[in-house]
Amino acid sequence: TRLKWSVVKKGVRWKFPRVAHISTDSVAALLSRSDKTPLVLDVRGVDEYAVSHLQGASRALSVEEALSVLQNMSSDQDIILYCSVGYRSSLLAEQLLDRGFENVYNLEGGLFTWANEGRSMGGSGKVHPFDARWGTLLDQKFKADDY
Questions:
Q1: Which distant-in-sequence residues (6+ apart) come within 8 Å of 44 by Cβ?
Q2: Nearest 10 degrees: CA dihedral of 57, 62, 68, 72?
Q3: Is 56 in contact with 96 (CB distance < 8 Å)?
Q4: Do 107 and 133 touch, CB atoms closer than 8 A?
Q5: What's the CA gap between 78 and 97, in Å, rounded?
Q6: 118, 119, 142, 139: which is closest to 51 by C-alpha?
Q7: Are 40 and 80 in contact (CB under 8 A)?
Q8: 98-111 in b/e burial notation, b at 16+ Cβ within 10 A?
Q9: 79 near 56, Cβ under 8 Å?
Q10: How far apart are CA 18 and CA 23, in angstroms?
Q11: pLDDT 10s digit of each residue in the chain, 147 long?
């Protein structure tokens, strides 16, 4: 069954109502600022990150890994999390909220939406599709060839 973006985004928002979701346009604007660049965390596996990621993103698959990256950050630091479509990153965002972080945002639609819009990425310029079902949300021209 082919997934639909409207259903996926609505489902993520329903499952994680406390998480603030941020658009690709807003993330692009934040990343272009020189005065207060946000911390970006990629909440995907090593193999997914190796194929592509947002420029400057650190990888953090668990709350422990995220806390390690965040240990020297100021409390008002903007933190943007993303994964393939937004589920794993929303889960980690919720865990960070539970630990007192306030400026935590999930990139709505994740790296798939970012890529589908033709935005710049580090790595191959293609995206790991996670699996065949979730990969249906990724424009075929951006899907990494080996997956």
A1: 53, 59, 61, 83, 84, 88, 111, 128, 130
A2: 60
A3: no
A4: no
A5: 12
A6: 142
A7: yes
A8: eeebeebbbbbbbb
A9: no
A10: 16
A11: 678 999 999 999 999 999 999 999 999 999 988 787 899 999 999 999 999 999 899 999 999 999 999 998 877 789 999 999 999 999 999 999 999 999 999 999 999 999 999 999 988 889 999 988 899 999 999 999 776
Q: Which pair of tokens denotes residue 60?
A: 């953090």
pTM of the prediction? 0.93
- Helix, strand, coil % in the chain, rounded to nearest 5: 40, 15, 45
Contact between 44 and 61 (Cβ < 8 Å)? yes
Tokens 């710049």 identify what position?
120
In sequence order, what E strands does the chain have? 20-22, 39-42, 52-53, 58-59, 79-82, 104-107, 122-123
